[in-house]
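Thread: quick sanity check before group meeting

JM: Hey all, I'm pulling together slides for Thursday and realized we never actually wrote out the predicted structure for the chain we discussed last week. Dropping the sequence here so it's in one place. If anyone has concerns about the input, flag it before I start.
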Amino acid sequence: MAETIFHEVPVRPKSDRRVPKKRLEQRLLSWFRTREDLELVELHHPGLRRLDLEPRDLTDTDPSEYPRTRAWAQALHDHGDHDGLVWMSRLHNTDQAYTFFGDRVTATAFEDPEDSIELWHGPGLERIYRFAEAAGITIVHP
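JM (edit): ok, ran it. Output follows.
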């Protein structure tokens, strides 16, 4: 949720922490496992330290810095044979976020997702509201 639905929500100012409920339509929350070991570039310590970076330099940045962080991701893709990237989520820094390079990892690398829940109603929507409330984010209705 933090890296998709709430990805562009600024930390400051607080008044801009709003997400339209429409953004939840047709979104699912799923859990999955890989069928094989994947080689990932670690963009958290000690991986960031190896690159002489800290989270504020690359993974804990405001949306205005995303063009620069995408350039880093492209460079890491182009200069290695890794399958993807892993970092600590900017908005939920107790969880890891993943990106897998589609030209190196195919859908067959993953088991079918476990039970998915819809995020626009029912238990999924309740989960979204709990996350948003904890993060000081407001879901706005049109």
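AS: nice. The chain has four helices and seven strands. The radius of gyration is 16 Å.
JM: adding both to the slides.
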